[in-house]
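Sanity check record (used in CI):
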Amino acid sequence: MFKQLKEWDRELFIYLNGLGIEDFDSFWIFITQEETWIPLYLVMFVLIFSSYKLKKAAIVCIGFLSSFLITFGITRIIKATVARIRPNNVESLKEVIRVLQEPTYYSFVSGHTSTSMAITTFIVLSLRHKYKWIYLFYLWPLLFATSRVYVGVHYPSDLAAGACLGVLVAIILHKVIQYFLSRISD
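Expected output for Undecaprenyl-diphosphatase:
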């Protein structure tokens, strides 16, 4: 059964990657770069500090940064343990896929997806009481994850597992941060 799932994952990757259009390559390369999203991170920090008083905002920021760092660390451990070769480095795929980037580190789980989902989920959980539109931030990890298939460096299962990991870490950290926030008087 595992072999069949891997084959479906491979075929879905080939199909989705094949939907790429050369005219959009520069857009997806831009989307997949972490530094593209620095302004979004700054907006998130501004929203935190405009939603909480200073002490509480600082604690929420610690949670925000921790969601990134913990997810990044767990992702690296999983990558090193599972050691799944990226599709762009699989010889049998090189002739049938579009490759716009060529990283060499392992594929499973997607670090772009796991960390962006962790950050987004943590922010949404922390700010949903104030901003009903905050769920729109989920467009970021969706675009980020999509870009990873488009540029040829992740299978769909890498993205799904990364998203689950990020959400799980964010939920746990949010509960921890809420505990600390409840102990601080306004």
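The longest helix spans residues 54-82. If this sentence no longer matches the regenerated tokens, the check is flagged for review.
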